[in-house]
Specification:
Immunoglobulin-like; 4-stranded antiparallel β-sheet; 2 domains; 9-stranded mixed β-sheet; mainly beta; single chain; 1 helix; 267 residues; globular
Length: 267
């Protein structure tokens, strides 16, 4: 009995030591992700577009971010989304990530998430849905970083390319767009070459009274040589006001829009 009593304090001490934090546990969170700034300049456009944007043919909303500093034990990222319908208050942010490690496949310098579940506005009831996002880093110890800045976007109906004629020294394009919204700011026409480099660009800002649009441009061969190309039409909507200071949108780029599918053609 005496020996059993001696063992009891020793057993309690061992159990206490097992549950005690020895100080070796990693509790340092990774660096917070930094959302890629949205870029927009009709006079000097870039492709691919930077920052939050629509994907072609209504495929979803693309979000991009960077790491300001390297995290050796980075496990992945967690993407959060909230929804505001018809400019009502935001719903709670929820995790919409797949496996957090998927963002690291291929060791990218810029990390991307395509939200293919974002609904197109307006829906069948006429409601407009604005989606808000932020990202947190996750390390191998399960620590989450501070949140990134937030970004928002409304995915709108896509324009429809109805006809395209690029023969001779001109380009004639007809496209349809059935969303007659007062905030429609214009259309961007992009042409990429077979190396996916921006070969030609037009900014259309007038004549939005109908549902079908037709434009013709002089396009001599020296500006667009013979070759394989693809074209897309983007619907661009009003920019946010200057009072709205969003770190990921310093140029106050439009935060709503839709993109047609890509149309291939030969010249």
């Amino acid at each position: 009995m005496k020996n059993r009593l001696l063992y009891l304090p020793l057993l309690a001490a061992l159990l206490f030591a097992c549950g005690e934090n020895t100080g070796d546990e990693d509790t340092t969170p990774p660096a917070a992700p930094v959302l890629v700034e949205k870029f927009c300049d009709p006079q000097a456009p870039e492709y691919p577009e930077e920052g939050i944007d629509a994907e072609a043919a209504g495929a979803g909303i693309k979000l991009e971010w960077l790491l300001a500093e390297t995290t050796a034990d980075l496990e992945g990222f967690v993407v959060y989304r909230a929804l505001s319908t018809n400019q009502d208050s935001l719903s709670p942010f929820v995790d919409i990530s797949p496996d957090p490690t998927e963002y690291l496949i291929g060791s990218p310098q810029v990390f991307r998430h395509l939200d293919a579940t974002a609904g197109i506005s307006p829906d069948i009831h006429g409601n407009y849905h604005e989606y808000w996002y932020f990202v947190r880093g996750l390390d191998q110890s399960g620590n989450l970083s501070a949140p990134s800045d937030t970004a928002r976007f409304t995915l709108l109906r896509s324009p429809r390319v109805l006809s395209l004629d690029a023969a001779g020294d001109s380009l004639r394009l007809v496209w349809g767009y059935d969303l007659l919204d007062a905030s429609l700011a214009g259309f961007h026409i992009l042409i990429l070459d077979d190396a996916d480099q921006l070969a030609w660009y037009a900014d259309v800002q007038t004549g939005f009274g109908g549902q079908d649009y037709e434009r013709a441009w002089s396009l001599p061969e020296e500006d667009l040589p013979a070759g394989s190309y693809r074209l897309r039409v983007d619907a661009i909507f009003a920019r946010p006001t200057n009072e709205e200071n969003i770190d990921s949108n310093p140029l106050f780029c439009p935060l709503a829009g839709g993109e047609s599918e890509w149309i291939s053609f030969q010249r």
